[in-house]
Structure formats: structure tokens, C-alpha cells
Amino acid sequence: MPQDALPFKDKDKIKKVVYAVDNKGHYTEVQSAGWEAEHVATQQAWEAIEEELKETAEKVAKGELSPIAYFMLKKLMDISILARYVGKWQWQVKRHMKPSVFKKLQQKTLDKYAAIFGITTLELLHFGQTPPREQP
Amino acid sequence: MNNHNIFQHHQHAHCESGVTANLLGHEGIPISEPLAFGIGAGLFFAHLPFVKVNGTPGTTFRTWPGAIFKRVTERLGITIHKEKFRTREKAMRALDQVLAQGKPVGMLSSVYYLPYLPEAFRFHFNAHNLVSYGKEGNQYLISDPVMEETTQIAPEDLANARFAKGTPEPNGMMYYITQSPKEVNFAKAIQQGIKQTNFFMLSPPLPWFGNKAIFLLAKKIKKYPQQLPPRKAALYLGNIIRMQEEIGTGGAGFRYLHAAFLEEADTLLKRDDLREKSQELTAIGDQWRNFAYSAARQMKNRNSDRVSYDELSELLMEIGKQEKTFFKQMEQLKW
After folding, report:
1. Which ipTM did the prediction report?
2. Exposed/middle/buried for residue B256 (C-beta within 10 Å: 0-12, 13-18, 19+)
3. Tell me: the pLDDT tens digits for B134-146?
4. The whole model's pTM is what?
């Protein structure tokens, strides 16, 4: 049973149970720190998100996308999930990602987005106006 | 009502079969996780290229959420209560009422809102099962089968997890056992579980479900280098590996768990043919592992080397053929 712990985003804090055959040929539950293949996949999934997050932050700074696009990714959501949380259609959320439409959004809608993202409305409005900082 | 107030938490590989085993154990029905998984016909395969989950095609190695608990309780003659809610307030109040009677309650939740889980796992996955077995102050006592120990959660977090949005939406779903028989007939339930697993693997006439879907995925993988940019192809592969190995499957996409079930079935029913089948499935599981290993290497390279994608496709084709033979033989078993 391989035990390749991965100290990445606290993954090593859980030892999970897997089923394996012991030396008498019987199945038993074994605690496992995981193995290489799944760690590669876990890490890759997160790296892909971070890469996309960086690209999106740059697009927001350049005025190609609204901050909603950035915070959606930061919360690991996609448009279908975010639309369900704001209670709007997907095409509406897509429109809100255009900076020109975003500027004209009502206070009420902005507040709703901010609450979903766990930030203040001011943080949402002003994101990207200064060069994007490293997000923890 | 039962009088054992102390809930026994056991860590398991998979959330739903784990919750099922823990809840039944509390009722005095000793059942292992593999037995719950097999009786509930948990093993499955599906690949849905058109259903994108966070941008990657959906792949699953198990049956749909809720099915295992439902089937196991039905097959063992256990009565349950299931309920969804319109509002968080009603859902939390109903939970408190059942907990006040000393009953442990199973719930559907989103792992994204469970602060006790490592960040690495916390995606918007909305079909995670856990049990609450009481309260301490306003904190809920939680038995999450993928955790080594019990834990606690704040009411706000639990409500968020129960009312997560996306696909599927738990809508506060909770379930608990209302009545259980003094004795249960495992023999018949095992037989029903085995037959249903065969049925779901072999008979769906659509290419996206059961054994056919393994061949579908094999064909798709072959085309990844032509159809996808390298980054995307690697992400698609990574997602298959995570579904197979990372997300509480007990290893090899539930194949080892089902093999453990067949071994236990052999012990309970005294049939050596099930032991043989268990060993065969273990060998197939080893090949799934080999596939994951090769896929991870391909992913790390990120070069769309067509030869390697061809090889991965062939590995899957071979697994598909062997599983087909395996389940066909399982169908031939005399009962």
C-alpha cells in the first residue's frame, strides 16, 4: 500500500480508507495517505484554477472582464452555479461579466454578488482598479 | 426507539455506503461498508461528455446519490424517513427535533462548506453524505465517514452545506431510520444487490451508461490530442483520475470495494464461486490502477504525444472487455 503523503492544501491531514488484499488474500480496510497518481491529479486541478485566476485578474485589470468573473473563479464556481446563487439566468450572469454592463448594475444586485463572494460591495467594485495583488 | 445514545463512528472509504453502515450499526444491525455497498448495488460506470462539471466531462464510477441507502434499507426491511425542505429555517428546526429524540440523522451536503475538510477536497461537490448525532451547545456533532474522528460544525456552515446550489441541489435533504426488524436476511439482499449491479452494468442500451461507457471513454481519449489543447486534455485526464482514486472510492473506482463485498458474500453464503469472482475483480481493479498511473504520467508530461493517448485508450478498451466478461459470468451464477 503506497503512502505518498501530499502536504498540499492540507490534503495530508486526512488519511483515507482504501480496500486492499492482505498477504493471506483477504480484503481489509487500510488507511492510506494516497498515492502518486491522485496527487498529481489533485495538484493539477488546483494549478489550473490558479492559472485561470491569474489570467482573469489580468483581463479585469485591462477592462476586458468585470470583477464578477474573477470572484466567481475564486469561489471555484462556474456560471451555472453562480446563476443559481444569485437567482438569475446564466445569460444574465454572463452579461454582468462585461465591464460596461457591470458599471450600470443596481446597488441591490451588486450587494447580492458581494454577499455570495463573501466580500464587501466596495471590494467588488474596486477590484482590479489597482494592479491585482497576490490573493492568499 | 432505540436506547443506545452513543453513536459509534467508523471511518469508511465512501460517504454514502459509510453513512449507511454507521446508521444501521446504530440500530443494532451489524453491516460492513462493502456489504452495504454491494447490497445497494453501488458499482457503476458512466461517462457523459456533454455534461460538463467545472468544465470537464462528467465521469462516475458509482450509482447516483441516495440510491445505496434507499436500496439497502428496502432490501433489509428497514423503514426510513426522508425529507427535503423549502427553507433553511425549517430544515434546521426539523433536524433539531429529530436529534432531540436521540436519533442520528443522515444528510446530503456540499463539501465546499465543510470547514473541517482539507482545502484540497473542497470543490462544489453537492452530494456528500454525513451524519449528525447530537448537539453540544449550538454546535452540531458530526460523524463524517471519510474522517478518522468525529467532528463539530457551526449551524451556519451546516445550513450552507445543506442548501448549496448547483447540480444536484440537496435542498436540506435529511434521512433517518424509523423502524428496523429484529433480524435481517442478508442472503436475499446480497443476491438482489449482485443482480442489480449486473443489470446496470450490462443492460443500458445507451452508450453513456454501464459497461458500454468504458468503451466510449476509451474512444474519446484516443481523440484528445487532435481535439483538445494540451492543457485541456491533461485536465480531462486528471478529472478521470480524481473520480477514480481521490473521491472516496476505496481505490480503483470502487472495484476493490465491490471485490471486498463479493469476498464477504462468499463468507456469509458459503459459495466459493463468489470468492473466485472477487479475485477476478481485484485483478481488474489493478488494471484500473495501472490506467490511472499511466494517465498521471501522461498528464505530467503535458505533451500531446499521440502514442501515449493511444496506449491509454487501449488500456481502457482492455478493461472494458474484461469487465464485460466478468459481469456476463456474474449473470450466469445460479442462485
Report:
1. 0.89
2. buried
3. 999 999 999 999 9
4. 0.92
